[in-house]
Amino acid sequence: MDRIWVRFLSFILCGALVGCASFKPDSTLPLSVVPSPNADERRPSLVVIHYTSNDDAAHSLKTLTSPERRVSAHYLISRAGALYQMVPESRRAWHAGQAYWAGITDVNSASIGIELDNNGAEPYDDAQLATLQALLHDLRVRYRIPAANFVGHSDVAPGRKIDPGAYFPWQQLATSGFGLWCTSAAETTEPVPISMPVMLTLLGYDPRLPDASREAFRLHYLSDGHGGLSDDDALAQRMAYCLLKQKIGQE
Ligand SMILES: [Zn+2]
């Protein structure tokens, strides 16, 4: 069809449809815009939690907004629980770097990044965690993000990153459905029929980095939330198997 006719048809159709506004084309190639009302905003499917490794939020805000530093996140939460947004959720923030989760290789494109003001060697403040819980709840309601997709930077960049670290209370967050957890893993003596690398891959970890993924898993699931970390391999296997069953049950 001639381009003039396509434009005319689009003008007539859009006049009759609500929410069918014209838009500026993304490509510079010659084309005709024929808007469709059958679309919405792209949806993030993953939330990645970080610590700033800093001692004050003002300093982190400066870094995360500096053109020279080329790093950002969608949100920053101060120790006192103040919430800052630096990048709209519809845009790709630069927080994950080289990363992988559950087949996703461009983690920045698929995720919301949240920075917590914490230096990595101290407990997280209650006020900060309360704001985080509220923000995670808000994101889950708006994007329907599954429990297994609330992860740490260490989970998506094993061997390269360790935040949000061994002080992060994953177990506490999981009771609200942010991230998976198994309280029964310590008690059960059931044999684990699947190898650890296979379980880690099925949980979302990068299959190209089995050893680093095992360490990242330990940091997330074998930490006590107070800086302590267990090196019990049998417990790690029972935990992974229990989490896998839980994840499959939720899918
Ligand atoms: Zn990070």
TrEMBL record:
Its EC number is 3.5.1.28. GO terms for molecular function: N-acetylmuramoyl-L-alanine amidase activity. Pfam families: Amidase_2. InterPro entries: Amidase/PGRP_sf, Amidase_domain, NAMLAA_amidase_2. It catalyses: Hydrolyzes the link between N-acetylmuramoyl residues and L-amino acid residues in certain cell-wall glycopeptides. One of its GO terms (cellular component) is outer membrane. Keywords: Cell wall biogenesis/degradation, Hydrolase. The keyword Methyltransferase does not apply. One of its GO terms (biological process) is cell wall organization. It is an enzyme of class 3 (hydrolase). This is N-acetylmuramoyl-L-alanine amidase.
